[in-house]
């Protein structure tokens, strides 16, 4: 946790799916209206940083969802990210590009992939990212070698594996945990009925995965960020120690303001700034 008396804001962004321009314009207009700077941006996966068609071809997705998106402009420096952006991998990513650097790398100015499992200190905040989604059948196997890309299903590259969870656990702690899918068991009893009535709503018992939850229980982050279901929700995990983790589930950028959250970090902890002032949609 930030030990100094420094206070700053950072943003969290849900699934981007190549819409980097919308992400930037929404956060810029928030920053302008709120007269607050953002120290950095954390993104929960399905970022889709395709440089070209060759990258796009290595993404797991039905053909109708394969779009180049905005990233090439950032990669070729025709546009730039105004703040450092740190993202993890979701289940729709150019594996032919990202998996050449499983420990993470800088793709272009102000744009960093955290890797399969990555830990970074951002202004005194320990941020851990774990890429991918859960698949029981693949979990105990190692990651397929990148040399098999193109000969096996792209989907085989979208999962996290036991080796990733073990590596993440070995760090022992984190202030912020960034995962793609939700941890299981975060829906509060009082929200079950409301959620059940909503369209395309996740089933409260089936939603999420146990490994994201296990990580939160082991690392005791103050905050867990996730996306994947394209649905906004705020939950919590109460640990055996009595401490808790806030869980912030974000919608997708295409859906609008619910894809975004801004947090203030101060000696008091990490607090979400509610009411982002969303008169202007992105
Ligand atoms: Zn998505």
How would you sum up this structure, described in words?
There is one protein chain. This protein has helices at 20-34, 53-56, 71-75, 95-98, 162-170, 189-197, 210-219, and strands at 8-13, 41-43, 85-87, 105-108, 111-113, 117-122, 125-130, 176-179, 223-226, 233-238, 244-249, 260-266, 269-273. The strands form two sheets. It has a seven-stranded mixed sheet with strand order 4-5-3-2-1-12-13, with no helix packed on it. A six-stranded mixed sheet has the order 6-7-8-9-11-10. It has one domain: Metallo-dependent phosphatases (Purple Acid Phosphatase, chain A, domain 2, 4-Layer Sandwich). The chain contains seven helices and 13 strands. The longest helix has 15 residues, at 20-34. A hairpin with a 2-residue loop joins β4 and β5. 20% of the residues lie in helices and 22% in strands. The model has no long low-confidence stretch (mean pLDDT 93). The chain has 282 residues and is of the alpha/beta class. The structure holds zinc ion (ZN).
The proportion of strand residues reads 15-25%
Structural class by SSE content: alpha/beta
In CATH terms, what is the architecture? 4-Layer Sandwich
> How widely separated are the two ends?
32 Å
Shape call: globular
Catalogue the unreliable spans: none
Alpha-carbon Rg, integer = 18 Å
CATH-defined superfamily: Metallo-dependent phosphatases
Number of domains: 1
Average of pLDDT: 93
Number of helices: 7
Present as ligands are: zinc ion
Look at the structure and give the CATH class: Alpha Beta
Secondary-structure element order, N to C = EHEHHEHEEEEHEHHEEEEE
- Give the helix level as a range of percent: 10-25%
CATH topology: Purple Acid Phosphatase, chain A, domain 2
């Amino acid at each position: 946790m930030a030990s100094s008396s420094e206070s700053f804001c950072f943003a969290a962004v849900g699934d981007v799916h190549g819409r980097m321009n919308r992400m930037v314009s929404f956060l810029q207009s928030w920053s302008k209206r709120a007269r607050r700077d953002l120290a950095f941006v954390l993104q929960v996966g399905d970022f889709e940083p395709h440089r070209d068609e060759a990258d796009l071809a290595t993404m797991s997705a039905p053909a109708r969802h394969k779009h180049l998106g905005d990233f090439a402009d950032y990669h070729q420096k025709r546009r730039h990210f105004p703040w450092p952006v740190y993202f993890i991998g979701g289940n729709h990513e150019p594996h032919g590009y990202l998996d050449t650097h499983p420990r993470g790398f800088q793709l272009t100015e102000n744009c960093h992939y955290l890797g399969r499992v990555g830990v970074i200190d951002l202004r005194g905040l320990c941020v851990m990212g774990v890429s991918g989604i859960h698949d029981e059948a693949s979990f105990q196997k190692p990651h397929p070698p990148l040399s098999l890309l193109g000969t096996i299903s792209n989907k085989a590259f979208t999962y996290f594996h036991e080796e990733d969870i073990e590596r993440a656990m070995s760090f022992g702690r984190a202030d912020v945990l960034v995962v793609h899918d939700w941890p299981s068991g975060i829906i509060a009893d009082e929200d079950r009925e409301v959620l059940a009535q909503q369209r395309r709503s996740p089933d409260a018992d089936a939603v999420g995965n146990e490994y994201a939850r296990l990580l939160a229980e082991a690392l005791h982050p103050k905050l867990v960020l996730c996306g994947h279901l394209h649905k906004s929700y705020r939950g919590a995990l109460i640990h055996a120690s009595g401490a808790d983790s806030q869980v912030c589930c974000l919608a997708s950028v295409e859906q609008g303001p619910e894809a975004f959250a801004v947090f203030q970090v101060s000696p008091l902890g990490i607090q979400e700034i509610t009411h982002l002032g969303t008169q202007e949609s992105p």
